[in-house]
Amino acid sequence: MSETAAPARLIWALGVTQIIGYGSLYYSFSILAPEMARDVSLPLDWLFAILSVCLLAGGMMAPKAGRWADRFGAARLMAPGSLAAGLALLAAALAPNAFSLGLSLAAMEIASAFVLYGTAFAAIVQAGGRSAQRSITHLTLIAGFASTLFWPLTSGLHEHLSWRMVYMLFAALNILVCLPIHVWVGRLPRQDDPQPVAKVALSDPADVPTVVAKPASRLPSGNLLFALMLAAFAAEGLVLASILVHMVPLLTALGLGSAGLLVSALFGPSQVASRLINMLFGGRLSQTVLAVIAAGLLPLALLLLTATSPWLPGVMVFAVLFGLGSGLTSIVGGTLPLELFGRAGYGARLGWVTAARQFSSALAPFAFAFALQRFGTEVALTIGIVLGAGGLALFAAIAVLRYRAVPPSAVAAPGE
């Protein structure tokens, strides 16, 4: 396997498994949840509370999955992860009561730590040499179609089948499609990085200078840099999860009415568009700078929403900006740790990033719903803007520490 790039067949293969994984383990749940709750005699809000606890369980597993990815190879974890995901979906489909359903959902979230972005990114880094950042961008572009495909697919299936039958079909997809792909991926050779080198840009090594410096984790600010990065991703995750879960009712409360559905439909294409734009034109952009841009788009979008609603064109621009920010966030979640700290220990660091984001995703919807009900829409959005601005400030601090630690004099020409 080339030292400079992961093969295209690996990216496309993982793209297929990410679409199926996210579609079956995440996006299908909100559509099937109402019937699921009725079937096990559980209030719907309680079912979502159980899901939040399960998300926390998956977040707790993510750092350990990352350490195992570094030790054994990320690709080798994905095959058993696919099997576990399929069996967990099957167990949920056969669950006779709320308790066993909750256990099955917890198993699904734990299995997701071994098959979704965190492990897939680590597999690419371990296989893809110095162009891993570009390969991660390609993967997020492909996987960005998961919601576009699985929301209508799940809805269409659910018109004719029970939620249990839908979950059985999704279990079969994980076992019959994802498992063989991941077995093949696990057989590809792994490239170890003998001496991690910090980089300044996302591009091919022949095109851009590289930084001859210690990895960021060995610099005096390394521990602080890592803590800031986790806090920044957590703050960003709070904003994203809060708004995405409540987007349609939020827009309705702001006076959009049925137009809220139209506006929310702009989010998905904007998310994919941001990844495509970055893939085509962001080749020379530092991932630290990209992280600042992504973080800045979120509070900017919320400010625009607050200032223009219920004016439809302004709210549509909000949806586009928020989608662009979300799409870029998916990329920098994998590429920023690689740029800051190098390939050594990448899986473990990415596991902690996944945990920080998953904790936010579990807690944010309930916190935002409480703010909406207790203080009203305007105050809830203000809280979201403040959190988004906090995430932006943290990423800006990372940029300052990053470029102080790696001054311009440390840049060398390619090959030096």
Q: What's the CATH class of the largest domain, please?
A: Mainly Alpha
Q: What sort of overall outline do the alpha carbons produce when their principal axes are compared? A: globular
Q: Which stretches of 5+ consecutive residues score pLDDT under 50?
A: 193-220, 408-416
- Topology, number of strands: 2
End-to-end Cα distance = 24 Å
What does this molecule look like?
The chain is mainly alpha-helical and 416 residues long. The protein folds into 2 domains: 8-186, MFS general substrate transporter like domains (Growth Hormone, Chain: A, Up-down Bundle); 210-412, Up-down Bundle (Growth Hormone, Chain: A). The chain has 15 helices and 2 strands. The protein has helices spanning 8-39, 44-72, 74-93, 98-112, 117-127, 132-143, 146-158, 163-186, 222-253, 259-264, 267-281, 287-308, 312-341, 346-375, 377-405; strands at residues 210-211, 411-412. Strands 1-2 form a two-stranded antiparallel ribbon. Helix 9 (222-253) packs parallel to helix 14 (346-375) and helix 12 (287-308) packs antiparallel against helix 13 (312-341). The longest helix has 32 residues, at 8-39. Residues 193-220 and 408-416 have low confidence and may be disordered.
